[in-house]
């Protein structure tokens, strides 16, 4: 807006028209809602029994999960909770940018983990003909020092969602 105010009136008009056109295009790209379905096929991955789930958007499979029950392996319940908490975090992050132009294009796969009720041992993600497969091969519990998560000296701690809400720009690098 500041840059627009400093531009001559005809450039302001042209820039506003271009921005409105871009916003219309972005709104058209809104993703249809995800539908999560239990497929029922069973298999074993990393020696852990799991059951298949699929996520579809507009009748296209976008993700597949092989979901283990949390009690199927040690630390399973803790891992399930961590995935669900990530879903909550990303949900808040997406909500904080929900009025911006990127809101329609952001996807939160972690929100699906609360619905599947287990741990996704295998995730297959499909996007534009490309497939990405992720497998959890092992889980170990380790005690970490709290100091590892403190901001280094000279840095300021800020909320990520607060910065986005206030229009902060990500650092370029």
Description:
With 173 residues, this protein is of the alpha+beta class. It contains five helices and five strands, in the order H-H-E-E-E-H-H-E-E-H. It has a five-stranded antiparallel beta sheet with strand order 1-2-3-4-5. The chain is flat and about 65 Å long. The model has no long low-confidence stretch (mean pLDDT 79).
H/I helix tally: 5
Radius of gyration: 21 Å
- Binned, the helix content reads 25-40%
What overall geometry do the principal axes of the alpha carbons give? flat
Query: How can the largest sheet be summarized?
Result: 5 strands, antiparallel
What is the β-strand count?
5
Q: Give the H and E element order.
A: HHEEEHHEEH
Spans of at least 5 consecutive residues whose pLDDT stays below 50 are none
Strand order of the largest sheet: 1-2-3-4-5
As a percent range, the share of strand residues is 25-35%
Compute the separation of the termini in Å.
Answer: 24 Å
Mean pLDDT: 79
Decide which structural class fits the backbone: alpha+beta
Describe the structure concisely for a colleague.
With 173 residues, this protein is of the alpha+beta class.
